[in-house]
Design brief:
The structure is a homodimer.
Chain A: H1 6-13, H2 17-24, H3 34-46, H4 53-59, E1 65-69, H5 84-99, E2 103-107, H6 115-122, E3 126-130, H7 136-140, E4 148-151, E5 161-165, H8 167-180, E6 186-191, H9 198-212, E7 222-225, H10 229-241, E8 248-251, H11 254-266, E9 276-281, H12 285-288, E10 294-298, H13 300-316, E11 324-327, E12 329-332
Parallel strand pairs in A: 1-2, 1-3, 3-4, 4-5, 5-11, 6-7, 6-8, 8-9, 9-10
Antiparallel strand pairs in A: 10-12
Helix pairs in contact in A: 1-2, 1-3, 5-13, 8-9, 10-11
Amino acid sequence: MKRAGIKDVAKEAGVSVSTVSYVLNRTPTETISPETSRRVLEAAKRLNYVPNLNARSLSSRRSNLIGVLIPQTEPGRELVFSNPFYGDLLSSIEYTARQRGYHLLLSGTQEDQSYLSIARNRGVDGIIIIGTYPGENLNELKQMDIPVVLVDSYVKDEYFHTIGIEDKEGAKLATRYLIEKGHRRIAFISGSIRENGVNMKRWQGYCEAMTEAGLPVEEDAIYSGTVDYEYGAIAAHEFVERGRRQSAAFVTADIITMGVIKGLMEQGLRVPRDLSVVSFDDVNLSQMAYPAFTTVHQDIAEKGRQAVLLALDAASRKERRHTECILPLSIVERDSVMEWRE
Amino acid sequence: MKRAGIKDVAKEAGVSVSTVSYVLNRTPTETISPETSRRVLEAAKRLNYVPNLNARSLSSRRSNLIGVLIPQTEPGRELVFSNPFYGDLLSSIEYTARQRGYHLLLSGTQEDQSYLSIARNRGVDGIIIIGTYPGENLNELKQMDIPVVLVDSYVKDEYFHTIGIEDKEGAKLATRYLIEKGHRRIAFISGSIRENGVNMKRWQGYCEAMTEAGLPVEEDAIYSGTVDYEYGAIAAHEFVERGRRQSAAFVTADIITMGVIKGLMEQGLRVPRDLSVVSFDDVNLSQMAYPAFTTVHQDIAEKGRQAVLLALDAASRKERRHTECILPLSIVERDSVMEWRE
């Protein structure tokens, strides 16, 4: 089947090629009668005409494509989605984009890959970057006139739109919750604590909540590794080796909590009987697990939705206006915390 | 910063534009001296030249883009990745593509969306479709000269490459395993059983294993709903309502098993004490859960890797040769099965 071109549509509708182009691209500046518009659309439908979006993106610079970059902090790592947080977030991004006629260009970028070359080469209308740190890779993007939305990043720059949560406040909520339940010795279990990263903020929130309650922040209560299941299990074993000196833990990600619970079970210990846990994220998994996690709820679906809307909104506006969007947090009480009495 | 074009590179290297194009596109038919080639590459590097892939795809029809379509069986459904199987699979597809310089175009297509328009509009080099049924949408794709790889689909057609597993055999392995452990009454819990779908094959495997052992396939042992956590919990409640007449269950997906275990726990019942379970898929989650699942292992990472390699290999060949790839299955023994003695 030979593919119908724009000329065929023009011939079929009895109008000029530019009229077809105006109608199909909905160019707002041109005046086309409803009757002509109808004729063009019907002709396009009859001929099964599909515009070549790559060709279109060269002229109108619209590709209906949103780049989603998930920087890989460990090079060569395979499982972008081993943390279900990314799956939940990407589901929402994909769905929101789909409803608006956009597709996603997905890349788990490695540190040696240039964000800029992806943006340029693909002609994306907007870019969503999930969890990134300041750096040259990010700065390069400023050369482009494409909206960039940073999700869960503490990069502060007029050029970028941001969407995130108040990680420090969330950590305070979690830690205070445990203190209210009577716990005095509270472990802090997290991924690596990097400057300008979310774990640094959560660490600060934990420290502030402890300090305001007059409780010491003790070195042997701190566990810092990687944001994955495996590290959670390792931390649980280390917790036992260090003599089980805490009655509760604030764990900064649900995926780590999965590992902590499993690691404790391997040693005959139970959550919350032997260790109360408040987790963070509220991924779908956290209510499926046993015990279901008491956790800091963030609206992951809303985060994904807002990221797409921010990118599309910014792409449609001419002037540049930096938008910062912060989503609320709350504690969801489930089954991983017990009251503590000395 | 003005972006360097191919003409700038040609000028810088002191060669013609076509020579630059030959070198950068690695056109195998042209003879270019190593010295010229080196000069062009160095000039391109000096000028920070980045080819416009959209422009390239119009001429050479190579976009370095692979379309990944995940048909949504329930329209308007948000969570493409609520089943961790998709996250595990997509991780592997993304990683394999990334290592080869490809990006993914991701779409959770709805039944009313044409696969063809995505293939055409985006100029993808290959398409991977995960779990689809025969239909017009799929047939349309035959108009295109693009390799299509179907993952986990029982569509038999010379036009499509397929990669999958022997679902019926896997179900037999699972059911026989339970029979060997002494179980006689075995429930079958699965998603909807559709013609030419994987659940239909797993259902057939279950029936065959029961029959060959001289065991009856009883209607009240069959649970069929949706492939999700929620349905697993519902099935567990129904199991109790029906009077707990089975000592074991073959559950056709790990995500359903998560729900079954949780639903039983809500009623004070435990796996495997009150119900032995053999699951299917071996997603990462199945070893993190409590109890860890005894499950039919399929190599999800290898499935994703092979899907990409099949697509790229087919794209690089001129002649069309249908490739069918079947990955092996095995039982992984963990903690969800107990021996049964009457």
